[in-house]
Amino acid sequence: MAGQLFEIMTKATISKGAKKSIQKYEFTMDQIDKILGCWICNHHYQGMIKNEQTIIEGDFDIHLWYSYQNDSFLSKQQVHYTDYIELSKKERPIKERDEIIADCSHLPKCIDAKLSGKTMQIEIERDMSLKIVGDTTIMVESKMDDDKELDINPDFIT
User: Fold this and answer.
1) SS3 sequence, 16-61?
2) Cα(103)–Cα(44) distance, rounded to whole angstroms?
3) What φ, ψ does residue 64 adopt, rounded to 5°?
4) How far apart are the C-alpha atoms of 14 and 136, rounded to whole Å?
5) pLDDT one-digit tens code per residue, 47-96
6) Is residue 64 assigned to a domain?
7) Number of domains in the chain
């Protein structure tokens, strides 16, 4: 058995990539004096392949807290986005039956909020990654001698 080659079928990461993006959004309010805060919540996303391009499509809610004439108000805006992710490691071409795993490394966060007239300019930072998992084969060479006896613990994986 020593020196024999074995072909093992398994699932493995075929390709992966990541993207950090900063995007600006503008919201116009009829009555606003100043911005009091900005929160991001309800972030949903999904990885997919469209036109042979790997992308992450998602959306989140922006809660804008602002004041007008010494009273405070809250506005909720839903934002949709599409991030094109370049794959840095490609073992083989992507197939339809491959699994796409999208991940958000850091939740979207507001890094800047400015008021220009009646327009709020909000800057949001996202850090997304994408992984393609698929079937692959690995070759393993046996290094064991037939003369040696194995001491196998049968309760190893219990």
Assistant:
1) EEEEEEEEEEEEECCCCCEEEEEEEEEEEEEEEEECCEEEEEEEEE
2) 10
3) -105, 120
4) 8
5) 998 877 889 999 999 999 999 999 999 999 999 999 999 988 676 777 77
6) yes
7) 1
